[in-house]
Amino acid sequence: MFAKTPKPPYYAVIFTAVRTDIDDDYAATSKLMRELAAKVDGYLGIETAGDGEEITVSYWRDLEAIQEWRSNTDHKIAKEKGRKDWYKAYISRIALVEREYGFSSV
């Protein structure tokens, strides 16, 4: 349901995208990217929402972990495929999470 994040501070990378109609290996690549990101030291979790327009928030211990993920060769290849085929537009934002609070009746 929600990523299991530690007590703040930590970082969030917020990826917002508008998809094209091209689906060529998108789901498989997305799954692979999640698996590879989870192997990066400093990866904390991920949450995704949307259909056609998507928002994915990944959580990281520090900026160095984010940079390591950004430098991953497979991730770079997927980003190029995204620019070429899967996305009409996207934006990534990096934010420092200073506080968190919530509610759950589950």
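^ that was protein a. below is b, sequence first then the tokens
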Amino acid sequence: MPANSPVPIPPLFLERMKNFLGDEFPVFAESLNGIPKSGLRVNTLKLTPEQFKALSLFSLGENVPWCPSAFTLDGEDRPGLHPYHLAGLYYMQDPSAMSPAELLAPQPGERVLDLAAAPGGKTTHLAALMKGEGLLVANEIKNKRVGHLAQNVERWGAGNVVVTNESPERLADHFGAYFDRVLVDAPCSGEGMFRKDMGARADWSTEMVAGCATRQGNILRVAAKLVRPGGYLLYSTCTFAPEEDENVVARLMEESGDFEVLPLPQFPGFMPGRPDWAESAPQGLSGAVRLFPHRVIGEGHFVCLLQRKAGDEKERAWDASPVRISKQFWPLWQAFLQEVVNVNLTGERLRVVGERLYYQPENIPNLNGVHLIHPGIWIGTFKKERFEPAHPLALFLKPGEARSVLNLAADSRELAAYLRGESIPTEVTGWTLVTVDGFGIGWGKGVQGILKNHFPRGWMV
């Protein structure tokens, strides 16, 4: 079923929501036929919201109340097609979907896990809140979705992210109770997306709700094992069904006895959790929050923050053993540093995988046995007699960290040609960072008055 084809809202769903919402139901039902509000979240690793707003590119609306780095979008703008998007200056995201990362509130230097991370909206948000410091593991179990996650992480340019492709069970076996904060944005029936996703309407049934609740309970049970004593576990969905929301959390609390619900801030329009909608849910679940499209600028969401009780459980001992640069490759790497970049990439954080060189997060544990997509920022690749920079390095570098730069205006013909994969005239020689209005967007190599294009084909517009 095409996502934009008109599909009626399931009558049984409406009947359920009428029972839940009472007097609020008419305005809720009307909101499902309204126009969704888009959101734009600025990448604060690269610029401030104020700096972005000063660029005056798009019709930015109001600030998202619960996300200081985000704006709503007005008008007919299409920011996803702008070169600044390819440079990682912002992420297009439903405003309600910005609430889980903000409410989890990770701190720089912490160890954080995004357990079901694709396509990467919450991962990039967590990375920005952590200021690129500490360790952020972004995991996606589905092979078809992990590539999209990896590309969004690369575009964001954060130096503290590891992308993995594992089951929650295997991660729990490997890490144990390791993380300060774990985010579980669980697969759900998608009721909160009914305003903009016709496929979610077509697929909905009470049987689907029950099946999702079972799956979510299993995921949350495993996720709890990954939280260190005293650490935090945030559970979120984009559904209104209490079977998938309060009930799932209540079962974890009953089975484990090791977690308590922490009251979340009540921003304008937020509804407290509704234990009265659930079966035998503790009253503490009123500390969760529910977001409804008739109350807030965004779609439907449920968010609950839990804290694990403090204890004396010992952390697993780690043998961090990165694969160092070999004597064969070392001269090529040193030559690249001297000729191309002006940045201190600490040797202890470098890891060689095959012929690829990565810059890992600080104090990373041993990841042997974990299916890694990227163990950090992909810096480049060792060739026969040279080192070639990788595209993620262009998005990671800050102003002044590349020795040769070709800066192009966002609306220039040269940049448009570059993004189509064409070579462009230039006076620069050797490896050159191509920037759009000062922000890295890719690599080129100047040879005899021509900049040979190294923008990746899969990113071309």
